[in-house]
Every structure is written in C-alpha cells, then in structure tokens.
Design brief:
Elements lengths: L1 H7 L1 E6 L3 H13 L3 E6 L3 H9 L5 E2 L10 E4 L3 H14 L5 E4 L5 H7 L8 E6 L20 E5 L6 H14 L2 E5 L1 H30 L11 H7 L6 H10 L1 H23 L3 H11 L2 H4 L2
Parallel strand pairs: 1-2, 1-4, 2-3, 4-5, 5-6, 7-8
Antiparallel strand pairs: 6-7
Helix pairs in contact: 4-5, 7-10
Length: 288
C-alpha cells in the first residue's frame, strides 16, 4: 500500500526551512492530501526541527531534486541565485521551480538564458512575520496575501496554470509585475519600513544605555513600529544589498521628510505640523 501511495504522490522539495519555506510546506501538506514534502536546509538543526514539527515528511537528499514535481527555493536572496541555477541544472522536464525572494531583478537576470527557464516562476509572496526558523512556520501565513509574479511570460503556460492553481489553493491573490518595477515598489512598501524599524530600535537602544527604565514606558505604538527590528539580519542584509539603488532612493526621500518635519517643530510651525499629519491621514482610506 505504501508503495502505491509513493507512486501516486506529488513530490515537493523545499530548500530553506525557515518561516517562508516552512509555512509553504505546512499549507501544501494541509491542502494537498497526495503531497509528500522533502526538506533541505544548510542548518542541520533546522532540518531536524522541521521533521520533528511535522513541517516536512522526509529529509531531502540531492537526488530528490531529479524526480521532484515541485521545488521551492526559500533561502536568503544572496544564496538563491546559486541554488536556483544548481536546481535548474538538475531538474527533469516536468518539474516546476519557484522562489519566494523579496528581490527579483538579479534573480531573473541570472536565470534568463538558462535552458530550463521555462520551468521557473519568479514569485514573491508578500507575507511574513518578524520571526525566523522552522519553529516560526505557521499554517495560513499566505491566506489573502498578494503573490507577485515577475516575467510570467517566460514560464511555460502549462507550468503557469499549475502554479496558479497551487497559489490560489493556499489562498494567495496574484499580481503580475516586471522585476524592476517590483524592486522599486517593494523598496518603499517593505524594505524602507524594515530599515525604519531597525533604526528606531537602534535609537531607543542607544538611549536606553543612559535611561535604564525607558522600555518600561514602551506602549503598543512603539512595539508595533519596532516589531520588524526583530527580523533576521541574515535575511535582510542581502535584500538591502541586492536592492541598494531603490532602497537608497526611498531612504533619501524618507530622510528629507523627517528633516522637514524636524524643521517645522524647530520653527514652531504647528499649523503646518497639523496639516502634514492631516494630509498623511489619507492613508486610512488606502490601507483599510
């Protein structure tokens, strides 16, 4: 009986068993009864933990790439290019490969001339938490979240259809975008907010050296704003590196706004302070 189940199963290989890879594995196992999930991670403790938590069914081996139906690359973006090329070099003609990286231009450029480019989907599910590792994985992380797909026209149509079915089954909304536009917009909507959170945390930590009880005064506003500063530096440093130009531009505009606001306070122009806040309040209608 077990042999028949193995033959009829759908083989998923997840490379990178942190929050994103682990959560995808859980959702796939939850939504597809025939799925068998194999897992890889460079951190052996992560692999063993993922197996212990039931995130993966089996610990993957290199040869599992050869006959996989699906391969999900969920590693930091500085590692993903080499991993993707290695995977695309080994897959069979029917394997679907997708990544979940927060930057897309360099990844798409790296694989654009690969002989198996048609098997690859450049994806970015916009979901996550400030936690990392397999213990952070959760079901329904992607429910009602947007998944941006870049250069979909370079993926074979049959693989597009299967991937869209999987993404929608997990609960994701789909948007299409070119890689440059993706990296530009995500710099403002995600990367800038992470930097802001890290730097707010840094500012407060430096003040805490002199004011030991400052964190006793921290309210929900501070906690929600600085939450992203708990995110993994190992994941975010490569993201900032790959998307440097767009991040620097967004930072420059953000710093200019901060300086303008500082000047209003210094000059005691409180009516203009009110107007600035009131105009920005429009975001309540945008982000409901």
């Amino acid at each position: 009986m077990s042999i028949v189940m193995e033959k009829n199963s759908e083989k998923f290989v997840v490379i990178g068993l942190g929050l994103m890879g682990g959560s995808l594995a859980l959702d796939i196992k939850n939504k597809r009864d025939d799925a068998v999930v194999y897992g890889f991670d460079t951190n052996e403790k992560h692999t063993l933990k993922a197996k212990e938590l039931g995130i993966i069914d089996k610990i993957g081996k290199e040869e599992d790439i050869l006959d996989a139906h699906w391969i999900i690359v969920a590693v930091p973006v500085d590692k993903s290019m080499d991993v993707l090329v290695n995977v695309l070099n080994k897959i069979n003609a029917h394997t679907i490969v997708f990544d979940v990286g927060s930057t897309k231009s360099q990844i798409c450029e790296t694989v654009k001339n690969h002989q198996n480019r048609r098997n690859f989907i450049a994806a970015h599910p916009i979901a996550g938490t400030e936690f990392s590792g397999p213990q952070a994985a959760m079901k329904d992380l992607f429910l009602d979240r947007t998944n941006i797909i870049c250069e979909v026209e370079k993926t074979a149509f049959v693989f597009q259809e299967k991937a869209l079915e999987l993404f929608k089954q997990i609960g994701m909304r789909i948007r299409y975008m070119d890689p440059v536009s993706h990296d530009k917009h995500i710099a403002y909507m995600s990367h800038l907010s992470h930097i802001s959170s890290f730097m707010l945390g840094k500012t407060v930590i430096e003040e805490e050296k002199n004011e030991r009880d400052i964190f006793d005064m921290a309210g929900s506003g501070f906690e929600s704003t600085v939450r992203l500063a708990k995110s993994s530096p190992a994941m975010w440093t490569p993201i900032f590196k790959q998307n440097k130009d767009h991040v620097v531009k967004s930072l420059s505009e953000y710093i200019a706004n901060l300086n303008s606001f500082k000047e209003l306070l210094e000059q005691e122009k409180y009516e203009e302070v009110f107007t600035t806040l009131e105009e920005t309040n429009r975001i309540k209608q945008i982000l409901k």
